[in-house]
Amino acid sequence: MAVLIVIFNMEVPRRPQPSFMLALPKPASSMSAMGAVEKVTKKGPMKEKLERTDDQVGQGKRNSEEETFESGVSVFVEASADSSELVDTSTARTNSRLPSQDSFSEESSISEERLAEEAKEAKKKSEEEAAAAKERAAQRQLLAIEELVQSERNYLRMLQLSTVTIRSNLQKLQPPLANLDSMFLYIEEVIDVSGRLLSLLDQKQVKPGDPHFLETLCNSFLSLSSDIEAAYKEYLANYNQVTVIENGYKQKEALWNEIVKVIKASAPEVNATSLSFFLVMPVQRIARYPLLLQTIQKHTDPTHPAYPLLEQTAHTSIALNCRINEYKRFREVADKYKKTETLTIKDKINRLNSHSIAKKTARFSQHFKHETGIAAKLVDEEFDALEGFFYVLENGILELLENVETYLNHLQAFLACKTEEFDFDMDGEKAPICYKEITTALRQWILPTFEKRMRTLIHKPLCALRDLLVGPRNLIRKRLDKLLDYELIEAKSNLSYEEQAVANTYRTMNTLLLNELPQFNGLALQMIWSMLGTFSCLHKDLASDMEQLFQSFAQQLPHSSVHPAAFWEWAESAVLEGARRLQTLCQSVQDSLNSPVVQPLSPSSQRRLKQLTDKHGSGKIYQVMTTVVGSRDLDLNLVKGELVAIISEADTRGDKRRWLVDAGGRRGYVPNSKLIRYHQPAEDPPPSPHLTLPEGMSGVRRHSYTPQSQPLTITRQPCFQVLAAYDFTARGNHEVSVRAGEPVRVLEPHDKRGNPEWSLVEAGDGQRGYVPSNYLAMMPTGTGPSSSYYPYC
């Protein structure tokens, strides 16, 4: 039996070709049938050619070929091999497949064209969408840039409005507002840096839509980043003070209503009701820079030439805010611990509690362990060096301030002694007149100006610098306390919330001091050097003014035309001679002012004399000849004329130059060379009445050196006269000798110091001098020897 293959071909509707090709696997049944035919069929040349043609069409399109061919039904019957029938059957099959292959080729070419067109359209569409997205990003970038610039201009305008208009109107309020300037502290720096940023943008003359504007904006911000940080960090650190001051205003309702009225009148378009509406703007603005820059960066193409610069600017703004926040935190810690509180003992006791006692006990224990070497101390060499230099500066500043104050006090004392006001009866001499005019100019113009500049340029800055030392000193001391607390918890692995707060406080204070103390030390040292230089310049100006003053009188002074060498030789000899004469004059004045060693005692000295005599005997009484200033242990400080009693004529080491004395309760050592035995008078003179001029009697003050004298004018009949009750022998030029019963005339009932124990009298022979007041007595007229002096009545 032969295999009879009957193929029925019939036309079927053709399915529409999709726009894409999907290779599907060939059914397994057809594959197995074809394989059976190939095994039993003998291949001829024509059939091999057809099969090669089929292979060239392509194995990947078999599914499509089967779908495009005319559908037919093949019936395969197994039979014996018959080559002729088989060849006829193959030929008939080949003939039936040739038209289907031609149609497939045409449809494939059409499909490829469609695919190309569709790909081209999709590409064009994607390009259009990308361009639209890029255009939208560019528009958003432009809007973000314009928002940054325009908001900066509005921000600057509002700050200027608050600083200039509102502030000036508030300053006109009566009474003036307290601490108004403190609210606007550091805002001028913020306005300045904001104005400079806008100026840099305007100088480039580039609009926000220009591609180069973004680069200009980033370069301007980066160039001012350090100035922005310096201005804003000080303002933000001081902003808490702004809130405190404004709350103080709000507590006074009438005052606050006036302030709000002024604000609304000064800025009606803003509708602000408080100063904080304007003063909070820098706090908000510095935090808005990163947001605006990040928005610009988000809508900027990464391929943009300025994109790396924009990214750097955004990172810089974020880092700038972080540093400002850290600085503000440091300032809060510093403000908390640098304050100096003046507490009474009651306040300190009220603050004591179990927590504070435990904390102070732990600190004391830790400090004791450090001092005894039980526990190792945490050493920070960098901080120790800064601390030591700070204390050196502190001592130098305080000592310099003390020296300047002493200098100014001496200068004031010099100006208070106005010698030019005294008349020395030298009207006919030319040189003294010139000297008087020079002295007057010095005391009324040159030296007061010099003193004023000294106080303004040196004394006031030194006082301010001394006050600034308090804050760092308190922080250093507080750091030591926190260090002791930190050492107690340092070794712990797990810290509680309070312990973590203690550790953070110590680290913050330590970091703050390490950052700020070098700057403070450097500025303090610079100020010291500047003030010392100013001190030298002031003296240079003083010397120049004095030289100019003396040159105006040079022609009127003697020796003005002498050769310089001869002039300096004369000046040196004149100065030495003047010094010698001044020393002689000083010694003479000292001798005139000092009371004699043996003189009538005051009531207190008489009581001490009686006490010492009763205790030690009259032979042990000595009197101090000159003032004694103790220089060793157990030495006494005694004034001239003071009475002491000798206890021992040698000290504990056997030194006979130091005597142990009793000064009326005080005991100590005195050099024996400054003591003299006190000779008590055999009979104490009776106390004399207080000598005063009677009413109706006038006189001119006279001195022993007065060349002329005028007799006293008597207005009524005299009734008393003054006599010497005891003999008195003068012991110096300032005293006068009198004999008992000798009438004298009292010129002054006291000495030059106002001491009534000595009286200035004129004896019968015309000599004048001092005698003890208790050596004089008033007698009725006619009971004593006659005299030419008019007695008192």
UniProtKB/TrEMBL annotation:
Pfam families: BAR (PF03114), RhoGEF (PF00621), SH3_2 (PF07653), SH3_9 (PF14604)
Keyword Protease among UniProt keywords: no
A cellular component term, taken from the record's GO annotations: cytoplasm
Region (Disordered): 39-132
GO molecular function per UniProt: guanyl-nucleotide exchange factor activity
Domain of life: Eukaryota
Residue ranges of every copy of the SH3 domain listed in the record: 617-680, 717-781
Sequence ranges of Basic and acidic residues compositional bias: 39-55, 111-132
Biased composition (Polar residues): 81-99
The entry's keywords: Guanine-nucleotide releasing factor, SH3 domain
Domain DH: 140-327
InterPro entries for this protein: AH/BAR_dom_sf, BAR_dom, DBL_dom_sf, DH_dom, Dynamin-Rho_GEF, SH3-like_dom_sf, SH3_domain
PANTHER family linked to this entry: NUCLEAR FUSION PROTEIN FUS2 (PTHR22834), RHO GUANINE NUCLEOTIDE EXCHANGE FACTOR 37 (PTHR22834:SF9)
Name of the molecule in the record: Rho guanine nucleotide exchange factor (GEF) 37
Recorded name of the encoding gene: ARHGEF37
